[in-house]
């Protein structure tokens, strides 16, 4: 398995995040709070799923209030990933605004990294392994639904995870 992005974060950051990865679903709001990141659900510009900006010294994430809860969770994880990985870009270039495909005008690498770290946080490899093994034995819709709802992710996110994590 490729090295986790989570492993590349500073020790203290990693330690604070890891504390929450034993919980199901992973409490993203608490992780944000731990780092002093403010989170709001707001009516954003059309086609924007989420954004992160530095405002008056604080990092502020806004999530599109009209999207589904699972979608909002992934968006929050994605924006938190930008916070952990791309603070300097936000500080130097201004807010990152992600559209529904999580494209923001930043490089593909930046967006791919944010998606990867988001998936690592929302479905931690070690914790979700046994669920994925259960799925491999039993790939019916019902099992997908049950496991997706346990982690509060979309079935699609779960399918992607299944294809990227070894058994
Ligand atoms: Zn993004």
Automatic annotation (TrEMBL):
InterPro entries: IrrE_HExxH (IPR010359), Rad_response_metalloprotease (IPR052345). It comes from the Bacteria. Residues 32-163 form the IrrE N-terminal-like domain. PANTHER family: ANTITOXIN HIGA1, BLL0069 PROTEIN. This is ImmA/IrrE family metallo-endopeptidase.
């Amino acid at each position: 398995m490729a090295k986790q992005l989570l492993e590349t974060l500073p020790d203290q950051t990693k330690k604070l995040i890891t504390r929450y990865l034993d919980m199901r679903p992973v409490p993203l709001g608490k992780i944000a709070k731990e780092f002093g990141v403010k989170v709001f659900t707001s009516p954003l510009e059309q086609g924007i799923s989420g954004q992160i900006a530095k405002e008056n010294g604080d990092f502020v994430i806004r999530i599109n209030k009209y999207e589904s809860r699972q979608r909002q969770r992934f968006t929050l994880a994605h924006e938190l990933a930008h916070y952990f990985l791309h603070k300097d870009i936000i500080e130097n270039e201004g807010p990152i605004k992600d559209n529904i495909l999580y494209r923001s005008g930043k490089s593909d690498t930046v967006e791919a990294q944010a998606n990867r770290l988001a998936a690592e946080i929302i479905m931690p490899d070690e914790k979700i392994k046994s669920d994925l093994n259960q799925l491999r034995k039993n790939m019916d819709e019902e099992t997908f639904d049950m496991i997706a709802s346990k982690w509060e992710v979309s079935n699609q996110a779960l399918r992607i995870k299944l294809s990227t994590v070894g058994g």
